[in-house]
Amino acid sequence: MKKITLFIFVTLFSLASINTYAKSADSALELYFFGSATCGECIDIKNNLLNPLTQEHGSRIRIRNYDSDKREDYELMLRMERQYGVTEPAAQTLFFPDTVLLGYSDIMENTRALVSEYFNNPHRLVSIAVTETTVDLEDELRKRVNISKFWLIAAAAFVDSINPCAIATMVFLVSFLATRKRKRSEILIVGMSFTAAVFITYLLLGAGVFAMLTAMNSYYIASRVIKWIAITLAGGVGIISLIDAFRFKKTKDAKSVTLQLPKSVKMRIHNIITTNMKGSRLVIGAIITGFTVTLLEAVCTGQVYLPAIAMMVQSEGSLKLIGWLYLVMYNFIFVIPLIAVMIATYYGMRWDKLSKMAVKHLTLSKILLGCVMIGLAAYMFFAL
After folding, report:
1. Taking each helix axis from N to C terminus, what angle separates 351-360 and 362-383, rounded to the nearest 10 degrees?
2. pTM (2 decimals)?
3. Is the dihedral of CA 176, 181, 182, 187 positive or negative?
4. How confident is the model at residue 239, as a pLDDT?
5. What are the Cα distances from residue 251, in Å, to 18, 136, 256, 371?
């Protein structure tokens, strides 16, 4: 009887062990990866880490890839971050059953070791169960906006808006209308039409560059090239602007300034204003002028605009929408001085006084431009 009981016990224990082993052998390691489809580092993680892991381990590993630019995938990522207790989100996130890796370096350096650790401990090979929690997407977006980055982009937009290239054109437009004996109300309407055209044109230019850089950013090497070109351009513009400030303060000669529109472009802008501001269709003329002049001024204003857009593209890999919001904000700030000039003109400010103010504060504007651009370069170098 004892032998029979012992035989049954051993048999049941063996079957249980075999069943447990079979379950362990059949269990797969489940991973959730979140990254933007237009992020170069995200593509690099997939191509050089996650895809090779799938090929090496076959059915033993299941990797679920999610595009954080998509609303539903982004909301899933937010729920999982909350579930795993993530307090400092990153542009790339890799969830294991009971741990999470954040950011490009952390994922690339530690994933393989963690995968081996899970395979050596089969009891940890459990499916990821995502809790069903409600997420306020708008509130999360507000939290994700980096305050220092926000103010740096806003500062870049401001120094771009007081760029002598843009202000000089507005001064010439106001002075031309004044010499044509236009009423103040007409000058205000023309100015606002001109400003609206500038805003739309500059925004469309930025949107085109943003989309192009976003597409290039989906390739890892291209994203690194874009970053270093932006750093070099921003730093170079900053240094040259500070040199311009020193030269102008010493000589008081605008010709000593390096960062300004070429004389040929200035003359072309003046001809465009003179041609389109004649006759009775001033609003149409102002819109055409604003569109054309903005394209020509991009030779000068683009020195600030391009690095700022590159920062917008690379700074928010976790959600491209934030980059687009930065772009709209930048353009709104860019036209604020133009609106202010038009309002001041309506209330009686003479164009010659406006011109003197622009020259008087040229040194200050150049110093501000230099400091902001160097700050932009430093931020992209250390933070992105």
Report:
1. 50
2. 0.72
3. positive
4. 94
5. 90, 57, 8, 21
Q: Which of 288, 283, 289, 308 is nearest to 377 (CA)?
A: 308
pLDDT in tens, 366-380: 899 999 999 999 988
The two three-digit tokens of residue 74, written as one number: 């982004």
Phi, psi of 93 (to 5 degrees): -135, 130
Over 267-285, what HEC string results?
Answer: HHHHHHHHHHCCCCCHHHH
Q: Which long-range contacts (CB under 8 A, 24 or more apart) does 269-275 make?
A: 269/169, 269/172, 269/293, 269/296, 269/297, 270/172, 272/296, 273/169, 273/172, 273/173, 273/176, 274/176
C-beta separation of 258 from 244 below 8 A: yes
* C-alpha to C-alpha distances, 242 to 165, 251, 372, 378, nearest whole angstrom: 16, 14, 11, 16
Give 30-46 as a DSSP string.
Answer: EEEEEE-TT-HHHHHHI
Q: pLDDT digits over 83-126, tens only?
A: 888 888 888 899 999 899 998 899 999 999 999 999 888 888 88
Amino acid at 374: I
262 confidence band (pLDDT: 50, 70, 90): confident
CA distance 379 to 384: 7
Residues 235 and 377 sit within 8 Å (Cβ to Cβ): yes
From the list 98, 87, 90, 103, the residue with the least C-alpha distance to 31 is: 98
Could you give the CA distance from residue 179 to residue 182 in angstroms, rounded to a whole number? 8
Amino acid (one-letter) located at 344 = A
SS3 65: strand
How many Cα atoms occupy the beta-carbon half-sphere of 308 within 13 Å? 33
